[in-house]
UniProtKB/TrEMBL annotation:
Residues 9-167 form the N-acetyltransferase domain. GO terms for molecular function: N-acetyltransferase activity. Keywords: Transferase. This is N-acetyltransferase. It comes from the Bacteria. The lineage of its organism: Bacteria, Pseudomonadati, Pseudomonadota, Gammaproteobacteria, Enterobacterales. Pfam families: Acetyltransf_1. It comes from Buttiauxella izardii. InterPro entries: Acyl_CoA_acyltransferase, GNAT_dom, NAT_camello-type.
């Protein structure tokens, strides 16, 4: 008889000690999907190894998903740069394969939008790419609507799917 211990999953705010683990997750998932730095995806972000510092600013928040003490995913929200002050952006939602399909991305996105509302944001924007079909389906279920023109100045030139939701 094979008895396995229950898996412990936690969703919590990022800490300084999480920087390397979150960057590793983003790089692994990006490589899995071919999201290369030369195309302006997150792996090109100059602050990728310092996300705690980025998301410690006012109006910013990032949560990590931890499974049995190991960081296996995360996502955040921040003011949309070069945009109207009431628009935030859902950012850097990355999850390793072992935690996909468990409702954690939905839980994290809802938590991020609750935070954004509390911070006074009225709309939430996101960018992704068409071959991330599971992510797009989730965003649609959460009430994001497709828009044609990009908002802000994210630098993600190959993110051809843009979505917006009223909070």
């Amino acid at each position: 008889m094979n008895i396995t211990a229950p898996v412990e999953i936690a969703l919590r705010r990022i800490t300084l000690d999480d920087n390397a683990a979150v960057a590793r997750v983003i790089r692994e998932v990006s490589a899995e999907y071919g999201l290369t730095a030369d195309k302006g995806y997150t792996v090109a972000d100059p602050n990728l190894d310092e996300l705690y510092q980025v998301y410690s600013q006012a109006g910013h928040a990032y949560w990590v998903v931890e499974m049995d003490g190991e960081v296996v995913g995360g996502g955040g929200v921040a003011p949309l740069t070069c945009s109207e002050p009431e628009i935030c952006e859902l950012q850097k939602m990355y999850f390793l394969p072992m935690v996909r399909g468990k409702g954690l991305a939905k839980r994290l996105a809802l938590q991020a939008m609750d935070f954004a509302r509390e911070e006074g944001f009225k709309r939430c924007y996101l960018e992704t790419t068409a071959f991330l079909t599971e992510a797009i389906a989730l965003y649609e279920r959460l009430g994001f609507e497709h828009i044609s023109e990009p908002l802000g100045c994210t630098g993600h030139v190959d993110c051809e799917v843009r979505m917006l939701k009223t909070l």
